[in-house]
Amino acid sequence: MMKALAAGLLMISAGCALADDPAAAKPAASAPADTRPPGQKLYARHCLPCHQADGYGVPNMQPAITDGTWVKSDPRALAMFVMTGGFNSGERKDSQNGNVMPPFAQLPDADLAQILTYIREKFGKGAPAVSAAEVADARSKLQKPPN
Ligand code: HEC
């Protein structure tokens, strides 16, 4: 009898805590652990707005990455493409793509490697992973002064 009463009181106080302080109950309910691989998270932040979650882009705005030429190409060529924003696509804006690709050279090698590995696996028919060393190599070639 005392036990049941105590349990009832506990339940009531728990209910009150929830009602009084909804924020206290929030984290557990609304923040499940983000288990996406790092490359997918970075893609979501930097690339998804234009190329979409499925990599098919948006017609007349930005092209599909999925099954494209670049995603499956040499890792360094792909890294250069992304670091320069399609080799300065703004300068040769075409009628097919209303948008231009911004450069991503500001991202660290490791982040770019994660993104490129993700898009190759997901949109490039499992093309091999890209390492941070390959991105660094591509970057060093980009920064070479023209001669
Ligand atoms: C503001 C929109 C925008 C964002 C953001 C963007 N892109 Fe692009 N992307 C474009 C456009 C426009 C093109 C076409 C450029 C061209 O043809 O020169 C393109 C082309 C590409 C291609 C070549 C597709 C092909 O034809 O094979 C790849 C690969 C690519 N983007 C990867 C990425 C990655 C990776 C990111 C994120 C780090 C990214 N893009 C972010 C607009 C965007």
Number of helices, where a helix is a run of at least 4 consecutive DSSP H or I residues? 7
What is the strand tally? Answer: 0
CATH architecture classification name: Orthogonal Bundle
Fourth CATH level, the homologous superfamily: Cytochrome c-like domain
Assess the beta-strand content as a share of residues. under 5%
What is the fold's blueprint, element by element?
Layout: H1 2-20, H2 22-30, H3 38-46, H4 48-51, H5 75-88, H6 109-123, H7 132-142
The protein binds heme C.
Characterization of the model:
This protein is mainly α. The chain has a single domain (36-142), classed as Orthogonal Bundle (Cytochrome Bc1 Complex, Chain D, domain 2), CATH 1.10.760.10. The chain has 7 helices and no strands. Helix 3 packs across helix 6 (109-123) and helix 6 packs across helix 7. The longest helix has 19 residues, at 2-20. The radius of gyration is 24 Å and the shape is globular. The protein binds heme C. The site of heme C (HEC) has 24 residues, from helix 4, helix 5 and helix 6.
Brief synopsis:
The protein has 147 residues and is mostly helical. It has helices spanning 2-20, 22-30, 38-46, 48-51, 75-88, 109-123, 132-142.
